[in-house]
Design a protein that fits this description.
Blueprint lengths: L7 H16 L3 H13 L5 H7 L12 H14 L4 H6 L7 H14 L1 H7 L12 H14 L5 E6 L12 E4 L5 E3 L5 E3 L2 E3 L10 E8 L8 H9 L6 H11 L6 E3 L2 H8 L8 E7 L7 H17 L6 E8 L6 E8 L5 E8 L5 E4 L6
Helix pairs in contact: 1-2, 2-6, 4-9, 11-12
Organism: Pseudooceanicola atlanticus
Protein name: DUF2332 domain-containing protein
C-alpha cells in the first residue's frame, strides 16, 4: 500500500513558496519545494514539526518553507552530506535522486534541521541598493554639500548600509555610485535614468532584532544558506559585500531605537533613513511607533539639517515593491515615487521623479 498523501496544507504552503522562487529566477528552489511538499510524510521529527507548525507558517509569517530549504542548503555549503551535494547545483539530479538525498538528510542531520527551523530566514539582498543609490543622487542634488547620516530599519547584517561602496550600471553605459566599486549592480532598467550627483556618507548605523555580524563565520553561513543554490551571481555579490562590511547594526527594537536615533537633527548633515522589504513584518505597535518617529523627524528638519526617508516595500497587489522617497526641511514633506522594483532588485521601472 502506498504511503498516505502529504497533508494538503503543507503541500499548498510549499507550492506557494515555490511559485515565488520561480518568479524570482530560481527554478531549482521551485523544484525542491514542490518535490518536498508533495513527498513529505509524517513520521520523522522534522516532517512532523513542519506539518504541525503552531504559528503562521506562510511566507509572510514564519516562512517555514524557506527555513527548511535554508537548512538543507547549509548542509551543502558545509559539505556535510555528499548525497545532498550531488543532488544540488551545479549538478543535475532528477526528482527521485533529489528526494532520496533530502529524505536521508532529514534523518541523518535531524538535530541540524530542527535547530535551523527555530529561527526565521535572514537575507541581505545587496541588489536592493539599486534603490538607495538612486535616491542618494536626488538627496545630493537637492542638498549639495551635505553628507548623509544613514540609518536602516531591519538591517540584518548591514550590507546595504554600504551602498556607497557599490556602483549602479545603467543602460546608457553610465554609472552612479562608487568610482572603484566592490560590486557593480546591473538591474534590468526601464524608464528615465537617475540624477547624477556625488554623495558622501558621514555615518551609518542599522537596527535589527537579530543582527548578524558580517565578520562571523556562523553568520556568514546563515546568509549564504538563504541565497538560493542556482543563483551564483547572488552568492558572488553577497561574498563581495561581506568582504568589506564591518558590524554596524544594533540589536534592538526599532520602535525604541528609531526615535532615539532621530531625536535631534544633525546640522550640516542629511538624516537618511531607509528600509527594504521589512515594514510588512512589523506588528501594529511597532508600525505606529516607527511612523511617529519618522513624522517627528520630518517636522524637526531644517534646511541645514534635512530629513530623507526611503521606503522600498512590497505592494499589496503583488506587483513588486514601490520605491518612495520623502524629503523634508521642516515644511510640508515632499513625497516622490521613484519607481517600482522587484524584491531582489533585478528590475527597476523608474518614473520621471527619479531624475530629481
Amino acid at each position: 500500500m502506498p504511503p498516505p498523501a502529504a497533508p494538503a496544507p503543507l503541500e499548498a504552503l510549499f507550492e506557494q513558496q515555490a511559485g515565488a522562487c520561480e518568479r524570482l529566477g530560481s527554478p531549482f528552489m521551485a523544484r525542491l519545494l514542490r518535490v518536498c511538499g508533495a513527498r513529505l510524510r509524517p513520521g520523522t521529527p522534522v516532517a512532523d514539526r513542519l506539518i504541525g507548525w503552531p504559528g503562521d507558517a506562510t511566507a509572510l509569517g514564519d516562512a517555514t518553507a524557506l527555513r527548511f530549504a535554508g537548512a538543507l542548503h547549509a548542509l551543502v555549503l558545509m559539505q556535510r552530506d555528499p548525497a545532498l551535494m550531488a543532488a544540488y547545483p551545479p549538478n543535475d539530479a532528477d526528482d527521485d535522486m533529489l528526494w532520496r538525498a533530502v529524505a536521508n538528510a532529514l534523518v541523518t542531520h535531524e538535530m541540524h534541521m530542527m535547530t535551523w527551523l527555530d529561527s526565521a530566514p535572514q537575507t541581505n539582498e545587496v541588489r536592493r541598493s539599486v534603490a538607495m543609490l538612486s535616491a542618494a543622487q536626488i538627496v545630493a542634488q537637492r542638498f549639495p554639500g551635505l553628507p548623509l547620516r544613514v540609518s536602516e530599519i531591519g538591517a540584518s547584517a548591514g550590507l546595504n548600509l554600504y551602498f556607497d561602496r557599490y556602483a549602479l550600471a545603467l543602460p546608457d553605459g553610465s554609472t552612479r555610485g562608487a568610482a572603484d566599486p566592490v560590486i557593480t549592480l546591473q538591474p534590468d532598467w526601464s524608464g528615465p535614468l537617475p540624477a547624477d550627483a556625488p554623495f558622501e556618507i558621514a555615518e551609518r548605523r542599522g537596527v535589527d532584532l537579530n543582527p548578524l555580524d558580517p565578520t562571523d563565520t556562523a553568520a556568514r553561513l546563515r546568509l549564504r544558506s538563504y541565497t538560493w543554490p542556482d543563483q551564483p551571481d547572488r552568492m558572488a555579490r553577497l561574498d563581495a559585500a561581506l568582504s568589506i562590511a564591518e558590524p554596524c547594526v544594533d540589536r534592538a527594537d526599532a520602535a525604541l531605537w528609531l526615535p532615539e536615533r532621530l531625536a535631534e537633527p544633525t546640522p550640516g548633515q542629511v538624516d537618511f533613513v531607509f528600509h527594504t522589504i521589512a515594514w510588512q513584518y512589523f506588528p501594529p505597535e511597532i508600525d505606529a511607533a516607527c511612523r511617529k518617529a519618522l513624522e517627528d523627524a520630518a517636522a524637526r528638519a531644517t534646511p541645514d539639517a534635512p530629513f530623507a526617508h526611503l521606503s522600498v516595500e512590497t505592494l499589496r497587489n503583488g506587483n513588486g515593491a514601490e520605491v518612495a522617497l520623502t524629503l523634508s526641511t521642516g515644511g510640508t514633506p515632499e513625497r516622490l515615487i521613484l519607481g517600482h522594483m522587484d524584491p531582489h532588485g533585478r528590475r527597476m521601472e523608474a518614473t520621471p521623479a527619479i531624475a530629481g
